[in-house]
Amino acid sequence: MDAGFIGGNVDRSVSGWSRFLGVSLRPFTGHAPHSLLLRGAIQVGLCIFFFVVGVRLATGDELAGHATELAYMRRTLFLAGIAVTAVALMGATQLVIGLLDLVPRRQVTGVVLSVRRRRFLDFLPRFAERMLYDRRGDGAIDRRKERTEVVLRTPEGDRQWTLRSHRTRRELRVGEHVRLTVSPIAGYVASVEPLGR
User: Fold this and answer.
1) pLDDT at position 127 over 70
2) Torsion over CA of 111, 103, 170 and 195, rounded to 10 degrees?
3) Kindly report the CA angle at 87 between 86 and 89, in degrees rounded to 5?
4) pLDDT per residue as tens digits for the range 133-166
């Protein structure tokens, strides 16, 4: 997480752990606010639709004469309802983060230390990664999700962000002094302004 999001030593330690593990600890890291709003709205809308259909099935009269099937279906629908509610909450979280990240932006200035692809636990030696993640035995390492991480050396210390845009990746060069415009929660890098080396 970048400087000032949580503040003080906690912020620095979170950023350090995030960089060490190869994953970002931000919720919905690097996603644009409008993308979070769209995905969250679709997710919540679909969940509401499925929830309404499930309630109608569970309380309908179609299976009233079949007590065994009705009891089984109600148990199944109850479990499905729990899953749908969890997915709806994730969608609502995306909506809230998208709304909160929509307008506020902060500018962070620093020197680009690295721009590279990261995976969870990619600091391990190659043989250890093979032992943990090679399930098929055909030489393919794994299917861990990759992300592109930019690390900036700022006056407050080293900070990292996840990049989703190919255009933004191409604008960053190691050793270059840049100004990033970022959102405060998801850490979306909205723009890059080169300031020279």
Assistant:
1) no
2) -40
3) 65
4) 665 555 555 566 777 888 888 888 888 888 888 8
> How many other C-beta atoms are found inside a 10 Å radius of the C-beta of residue 103?
8
What is the pTM for the complete model shown? 0.67
| Domains detected in the chain | 104-194 (2.40.50.140)
The answer to whether the beta carbons of residues 24 and 147 sit under 8 Å apart is: yes
Q: What per-residue string of b and e applies to 176-185 under the rule 16 or more CB within 10 Å gives b?
A: bbbebebbbb
Give the up-direction half-sphere exposure of residue 162: CA atoms within 13 A in the CB hemisphere: 24
User: Where are the alpha helices (H) located in the chain, listed in sequence order?
Assistant: 8-21, 33-59, 67-101, 126-133, 166-170
Radius of gyration of the chain (CA): 22
CA nearest 108: which of 157, 38, 71?
157
Residue with tokens 């995306």: 94
Q: Report yes or no: 178 and 109 within 8 Å, Cβ to Cβ.
A: yes
Q: What percent of the chain has pLDDT over 70?
A: 68
